[in-house]
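Reviewer 2 asked us to include a model.

Predict the structure of this chain.
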Amino acid sequence: MKLSKQFSNLIFDRSKLMINKEYAALYKKSNAHRSYFDLPLLSIINKLTAIKRNLSSLVFIGPNPDFFLKKLDPLVFKEIKELYVCDHTKISLDQSMKELNEEYKDSSLKIIPRLVDEENWDFEEKTLDGIVSNMQMHWVNYFDSTFHKLHQSLKPDGLLIFSMMGANTLNELKLSFVMAEQEREGGTSPVIAPMISLQNIGDLLDVAGYRIVTTDMIRFAYEFNSMFTLMQFLQLVGETNILHEKRQYKSKDTFIAAAAIYQSLFNKQIHDMKNEISEKLIEVDVFAEEKGKVTNIVASFEVMYGIGWKEPRKSAETELISKRKPIDLKKMAEELKKMADTRYGSIDSSGNLIEK
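Predicted model (structure tokens):
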């Protein structure tokens, strides 16, 4: 359990997270909010389409469950009998339920609202077929215990699938503030929350008891007029800094210096030149008044996906297989050799076998 202890310190202030989420709920219909949450959710939906499992009792954690159900494959949707709509704040949950009740009032689908904090997961053991979490996990303090609690609430052969921000998200903003603070304040403090790597996510899922763990990642970029527009975007989606240990005050000069550094080092022109010879980022949306302007800044995001399964159900077939005697490969090879009518040689011009 050494790995899990690495992430067991209290890093994030969850009370501030709830405040951020309440503010973001006021802008759920905004282009910023939809772009930030719906792109990763589409990838989750595509992954679910390829999974052939009964998901009759499903949990959805995130702000846009209406989009989730609308885009879900009809065959997958048909299997869902109970959908637990979970969110961190009441205002966001109420908005989601209002949209869902209007859209699915005549549906047989049972929709159950629930205020949830992943760190205090209170679902009963072995009650859920699947858990879907969209862009929420990167604010968790205790990955080991959280993943374990989610695992306990799943039925055998149950599924956990989630998206979260990766370690290289907003690297441009991090570097700009580091350089500005070193110059103006003689030291640095974290301005972007630390995120864990893709490899660590897989290890943590394995330690928590999940099997057939798979992880993958996508990178994309947004274009903004300036660093201040980017910071406004982060505020609208509820993703501003909630670290416990950070500098409480940054001077106006530091912000101005960071914005100037950002615009000099990470503008649209430099981004396009760099990506002609390296990995191409996917530009999915633009939050700049003038698209493609060379002085616009570019912010890169990294989204990680994780899938983990609980151990499979025991059935009569699996019990029968487990009781079979192991195959003696050596004995099988000898028997096949005796049975085989194998001749070695070459083929002449007439197509006849010339044996050696």
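Residues 1-8, 315-322 have pLDDT under 50 and may be disordered. The chain has 14 helices and ten strands. We have added this to the supplementary material.
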